[in-house]
Amino acid sequence: MSKPLTIVGTGMAGLGLARQLRAMDAERPITLITADSGDDYAKPLLSTGFAKRLPPERLAQRSALEVADQLGIVMRTQTPVTGLDPKAHTLGLGEETLPYSQLVLATGAAPRHPLTIPDELMPRVHTINDLDDYRRFHSALERAGNRARVAIVGAGLVGCEFANDLSAGGHRVTLIAPEATPLARLLPEPLGRALGEALEEGGIELLSGRSVERLETSGADVGLALSGGYTVEADLVLVATGLVPRTRLAQEAGIETSAAGIHTDRYLATSAPDIYALGDVACVAGVNAMYVQPLQASAKALAATLSGTPTAVHYGPWPVVVKTPLCPVVAYPPLASPERWRIEGEGRDLTALAESEDGSLLGFALTGACVRRKVELARAAPALLV
Ligand SMILES: Cc1cc2nc3c(=O)[nH]c(=O)nc-3n(C[C@H](O)[C@H](O)[C@H](O)COP(=O)(O)OP(=O)(O)OC[C@H]3O[C@@H](n4cnc5c(N)ncnc54)[C@H](O)[C@@H]3O)c2cc1C
After folding, report:
1. Domain range for residue 59?
2. Global pTM?
3. Nearest-CA neighbor of 204 among 153, 163, 260, 263?
4. 86 C-alpha vs ligand 1 centroid, how far in Å?
5. Residue 21's domain is classified under what CATH number?
6. Which residues does residue 239 pair with via DSSP β-bridges, in sequence order?
7. If you measure from the C-alpha of residue 279 to the centroid of ligand 1, how many angstroms do you get, rounded to a whole number?
8. Of 125, 257, 283, 346, which has the fewest beta carbons less than 10 angstroms from its beta carbon?
């Protein structure tokens, strides 16, 4: 019989791997351990649920129990793994020590929290990075009532998507970020400006070029003190200032890590024997993608490797579709700064081509009607892990 496998994390990476593996091997004992509820849900849908007024239970496709039954696995929920000993091949679960044979770390990434939150404001300041967070924010929004004032800190993918979604759900949204235009890491400035104008036209207050310096109580509201002496008052605050790979377990166990994640080779193997890493926590051959498509490619390759066919992962070009219906956006950012961005189109229908010195395509960004060029340009763009 094949070796028992233990997977830490039941996000799209951990559960995706368990599914792939079960399809290849009906017998292998698999244990999944997660700090959260273990419900099966698609994380990208979290930032589309408020416009449709979806309660959290509608986002969970299956409960942890149903997943365990369906896949014939052992599932341990609400069980944070607190330690890892690669030499002894054991995990620490609080007081309990659990032996493993082969281990996959799929612990994802945690929201970065740059702001100090006064205790009394804790219930009003949120991040949404999993279904449990969505549950909490959904309840807070219900308490705040119709047309709640929501201040979103950070105008990256997550901040922009929630701004569009909450605004479409009838709430009054203020989007605050230090950059000159939204989605600054994905879009060159003219396309970011087009998106920003569309968000404003859609009723979102966009405060670009301003950072949040402090959160404070302001009567019954949360006060956000911004650079330049500006103040915003809100019922709720959503912090969307980026994610940090959860590397602590691996790092403390002496496994090779960096700010980009747990280092693995193309076979998803870490620097410790019998330990693999996958998903947002993994930096695969120098690349931490933090998107679904590369994670799925990794889960497929690792399932084959663990089933006895060593398989290196390949990432094709994976354009990111940003879910901002007010101005559709697709981006496939180049790994390094391009020599130039060549921008074509007019109004909000723009194509930006990231080019090298010799004119070859390194990446691209599309807004408005130009998003239909996604497939054509993805075919022409280089893959990151070939
Ligand atoms: C709002 C939002 C929208 C997104 N939209 C898109 C999109 O449109 N397209 C796209 O490609 N990507 C999108 N992404 C990114 C994508 O969803 C992620 O890349 C992917 O879901 C990451 O999955 P994961 O399993 O690696 O991590 P996670 O989903 O974070 O799962 C980590 C798991 O590890 C568990 N865990 C962590 N630490 C421990 C511990 N110590 N002990 C036990 N368990 C632990 C957690 O409980 C959880 O079960 C979006 C992300 C967000 C937040």
Report:
1. 5-109+244-306
2. 0.95
3. 163
4. 24
5. 3.50.50.60
6. 153
7. 8
8. 346
